[in-house]
Design goal:
Structural class: mainly beta
Distance between the termini: 44 Å
Shape: globular
Helix content: under 10%
Strand order of the largest sheet: 1-27-26-25-24
Largest sheet: 5 strands, antiparallel
């Protein structure tokens, strides 16, 4: 058998300071010389890392999970408070598996006999070895979804202050500050994730302040969605002044006014689905005007790419007038620009650093690595640097999942499967 060829990392205007050999993650947040990583899979929960010397990162604390039912792959920090999500592991697979009883019944009717596991798995579009997990979920349910609040005054010994259970599959990505948490979660009576805002004045007892959802989600109140399944839902909302910028998956993005935080209300929306197939992951305006315009950057997530359709990419919008939101340009990475694009694993865009305090946008592109895009000319964004990692040992390609940048310009690039890379720009 021919030995698989090792492909080295590739970079332009970026050099590597260090690599930390840790399990893969969903989010990296860097504050005050500390990096916080939320991991994808149990038993690994959250890792806190001392990066005061970024060339010599040191693990201070690893928080482990008690079982494999959940993952805590997102983490945010404000002051001495850390929040980690709690979400059901394998949620996409298990959501598909909810149809198992109906599919089994339909197959039995058409076949004239009870179907076997191979036939059931094929009808559900699942691997046969996943049916055990599906059946366990259908028998036992899941009641652990929510979020945990921690005191990190001593980052080497976090203290759990509270555990708020929400509903369904639990909490996905979220935002927070020292006063509030802006949580994306399933809630009873709604279809798909909605926004629930919690007051953190007493972090031992977070108090729900308000909710926001799109018309059609509140099925318990008689609303009927105009879409199928969970296509339209909140991915997460980011606070900007008295606004929340919400990415709502196959419904594009919306802007929510929280001048009265007890009564969030939608003040703007823009949806480009269809024709573009990949869902909207993150939307955020720049902190400063660019060429006299208020500019927002929006990124889609490469989810289940269909050959012949465009890969997920980056959008630049003029949002000066929220009643007249319109796209100015896009930034796209060609498959020819990564040696891993034809390997197993996702290729297109996923996420960017959730702070745009200049004209540089740091974007993760799954097997396309990290792309640094200058939007000084919002009509013509230009890549000024990139870094494409090697594939982690045992995986067919890198899957650059999340990125943050500290106050000294040091970049923290997190792989979905394994490893944290610490990088620095040069010549930019």
């Amino acid at each position: 058998m021919m030995k698989k060829k090792k492909i080295p990392s590739a970079s332009k205007n970026i050099f590597r300071l260090a690599t930390l050999n840790i399990p893969g993650g969903g989010q990296v947040t860097v504050e005050n010389g500390l990096a916080f990583v939320g991991h994808m899979d149990a038993p690994d929960g959250t890792t806190i890392i001392d990066v005061k010397d970024p060339s010599n990162p040191k693990i201070l604390k690893q928080i482990f999970l008690d079982d494999g039912l959940s993952h805590t792959h997102k983490v945010r920090v404000a002051g001495n408070i850390m929040i980690t999500n709690v979400e059901q592991a394998q949620r996409h697979l298990l959501r598909r598996g909810e149809k198992l009883p109906d599919v089994s019944s339909q197959l039995a009717s058409s076949l004239g006999r009870p179907p076997n596991d191979s036939e059931i798995a094929a009808a559900l579009g699942l691997a046969e070895n996943k049916l055990t997990d599906v059946r366990q979920f259908l028998n036992n349910g899941y009641n652990d979804g929510g979020f945990r609040v921690w005191d990190i005054s001593d980052p080497s010994n976090p203290e759990l202050l509270s555990y708020v259970r929400t509903h369904g599959f639990g909490v996905h990505r979220f935002d927070m500050d020292e006063n509030y948490a802006y949580i994306s979660t399933e809630m009873e009576g709604y279809v798909g994730n909605i926004l629930v805002i919690y007051d953190l004045a007493d972090p031992k007892k977070p108090v729900e302040v308000s909710r926001w959802h799109m018309p059609g989600q509140h099925t318990a109140a008689g609303e009927k969605p105009s879409w199928k399944g969970y296509k339209n839902r909140l991915h997460h909302a980011l606070r900007v002044g008295d606004e929340l910028w919400a990415a709502v998956w196959n419904a594009g993005f919306q802007v929510i006014d929280i001048t009265d935080i007890s009564m969030p209300k939608t003040i703007a929306s823009y949806n480009y689905h269809p024709p573009f197939p990949e869902p909207t992951h993150t939307a955020l305006p720049c902190e400063q005007l660019i060429d006299g315009r208020r500019i927002a950057v929006v990124v889609d997530e490469e989810h289940e790419h269909t050959p012949g359709q465009p890969h997920a990419f980056l959008w630049i919008f003029d949002v000066t007038d929220l009643k007249n939101i319109h796209p100015l340009s896009t930034f796209y990475v060609s498959e020819t620009e990564s040696p891993w694009s034809q390997c197993e694993g996702r290729f297109g865009a996923h996420q960017y650093r959730e702070k745009i305090d200049g004209t540089l946008v740091y974007v993760t592109w799954f097997s396309g690595g990290l792309r640094v895009v200058d939007i000084a000319d919002p009509f013509s964004p230009k890549e000024v640097a990139h870094y494409i990692p090697e594939a982690p040992e045992g995986y067919p390609s890198p899957q650059s999942n999340d990125v943050d940048v500290d106050e000294n310009g040091v970049i923290y690039l997190l792989d979905r499967n394994h490893g944290l890379e610490i990088l620095k720009l040069e010549n930019v």
